[in-house]
From TrEMBL:
Belongs to the 2-oxoadipate dioxygenase/decarboxylase family. Keywords: Dioxygenase, Iron, Oxidoreductase. GO terms for molecular function: dioxygenase activity. Gene3D superfamilies: Uncharacterised protein PF07063, DUF1338. It comes from Pseudomonas thivervalensis. This is 2-oxoadipate dioxygenase/decarboxylase. InterPro entries: HGLS (IPR009770), YdcJ_bac-like (IPR047869). Pfam families: HGLS.
Length: 458
């Protein structure tokens, strides 16, 4: 039996999700067009950027690139999702605790982990597990648990195909096609809620996110995010296309050498829903929104510590959550603080602030066999036998993610939870450990160094 590569199943699934979401949320289609148009213009205006993206392979994956987000209610749901994503070569990377920012969830990102798999499809799903233990009202908590225990978010076909993939070690072409269709059903939007209008109101009063998870049949995809090469241009153009962006761009400020991840979203839409006790009457729920992202260099632990320090300092100086009224001051404070973050590729590399991939140059390949065996990386770079490109950041940022959540939950949701960060409980629910993202970047960097040494014979 011959199996389809999980990377190709993921590529196909990502496309199917995008098509489904575009049909469900037309504004996502409008945003995709805007991003595509902006990317084409940026590439035409900046041939150096186009060359850089070509040399790393990011050029080819740019149009495929997107992430989505879902929220689940129980350990069993999370564990089965983990198995479903594994069929597509996606593993849980990173642990994000959103409770300090007043969002009662903790999360991971399912994604491909090897650079060659990311090249085929960098599709990622930010997946949050509701922390029901944070609901203070015991009666409401018990009600939420009973509703969640009764639902089945996977089709029987999806469950069978997950089993089959695990038993066989993969899926055939026909099985993979079926799997994509079945898996898609879990993430579809349903107009009919599973609770009464009054129950919805109570859940929502506790936290809008709790209603979003508990009151529906399944974890509808709540946004899909295309990757742009210039997020400031897209942010500025969104209103022209009838899209209202959130007040500030999350993540680092604009720089010469982009680092980590910058994100902005547009507000969730009010959508009609029918409650179980009044199927004809129209209630409303807002959950689904649009987002764009710009990705830059993955930072080492040292670089990340500096990023966190500068971000916290800028936010402390602002003294409140960024919003419409203080957006300009926030942007100014961020720019001022981030002057302290080196902004050239050479500095980022020499000070070990970012991870890099190394490539042999034609000059290096021609010199193979004549080079000093113990030549250092710096020497090979100086002599232009090698060149270095920053590794793209494939993950998320907790402070930014909280900002994206909040922009879609309303300002009333900005409270704090006393609960402890609980990675262990998350991993117990998932049924496995989450992977440390920094280790993945370090491995990719090391593989590229090993390959370069082999290619140059040093
Ligand atoms: C997830 C919000 C976080 C991101 O890109 O940081 C996120 C959610 O709203 O479920 O998508
Ligand atoms: Ni997102």
């Amino acid at each position: 039996m011959s199996f389809v590569s999980p990377d190709l199943i993921r590529q196909r699934f990502s496309r199917a999700m995008s098509d489904m979401y575009r049909d469900e949320v037309p504004l996502y289609g409008a945003l995709m067009k805007l991003v595509e148009h902006t990317n084409a213009q940026v590439l035409a205006d900046q041939p150096e950027l186009a060359a850089h993206l070509r040399s790393t392979g990011e050029f080819e994956r740019l149009d495929l690139e997107r992430h989505g987000a879902i929220r689940v209610g129980t350990a069993a749901e999370l564990a089965t999702l983990g198995r479903l994503f594994a069929v597509m070569g996606m593993q849980p990377v990173g642990y994000y605790d959103l409770t300090p920012a007043g969002v009662p969830v903790h999360s991971t990102a399912f994604r491909a982990v090897h650079e060659s798999a990311l090249q085929v499809s960098p599709f990622r799903v930010f997946t949050s597990l509701l922390r029901l233990e944070l609901i203070e009202n015991a009666e409401l908590r018990a009600f939420a648990e009973s509703v969640l225990d009764r639902r089945q978010i996977f089709t029987p076909g999806a469950l069978e195909l997950i089993d089959l993939a695990e038993r066989q070690g993969g899926l055939t072409q026909a099985q993979a096609e079926d799997f994509v269709l079945q898996a898609l059903e879990t993430f579809r939007w349903h107009h009919s809620a599973t609770v009464t209008a009054e129950q919805y109101r109570q859940l929502s009063a506790q936290h809008r996110l709790i209603a979003d998870v508990v009151a529906f049949k399944g974890p509808h995809i709540n946004h899909l995010t295309p990757r742009t090469l210039d997020i400031d241009i897209v942010q500025a153009r969104m209103p022209v296309h009838g899209i209202t962006p959130k007040a500030v761009i999350e993540g680092p400020p604009r720089r010469q050498c982009p680092i980590l991840l910058r994100q902005t979203s547009f507000k969730a839409l009010d959508e009609p829903v029918a409650f179980t006790n009044q199927p004809q009457a129209q209630g409303s729920h807002s959950a689904r929104f649009g987002e764009i992202e710009q990705r830059g260099a993955a930072l080492t632990p040292t670089g990340r510590a500096l990023y966190d320090q500068l971000l916290n300092a800028a936010r402390d100086a602002l003294g409140e959550f960024p919003n419409e009224a203080n957006a300009e001051r926030y942007n100014r404070l961020m720019a001022e603080h981030f002057v302290a973050f080196p902004d050239s590729h050479d500095e980022l590399r020499q000070q070990a602030l970012a991870y890099f991939r190394y490539f042999p140059t034609p000059k290096g390949l021609a010199a193979k066999g004549t080079l000093e065996q113990a030549a250092s990386l710096e020497h090979l770079l100086e002599q232009q036998y090698l060149h270095a490109e920053p590794l793209v950041y494939e993950d998320f940022l907790p402070v930014s993610a909280a900002g994206i959540f909040q922009s879609n939950l309303g300002d009333a949701a900005q409270s704090h939870y006393a609960g402890q960060s609980n990675r262990q409980a998350f991993e117990t629910a998932l049924g496995r450990a989450t992977i440390d993202e920094l280790g993945l970047y370090a491995q990719t960097q090391q593989r590229s160094i090993d390959e370069c040494r082999a290619a140059l014979g040093v």
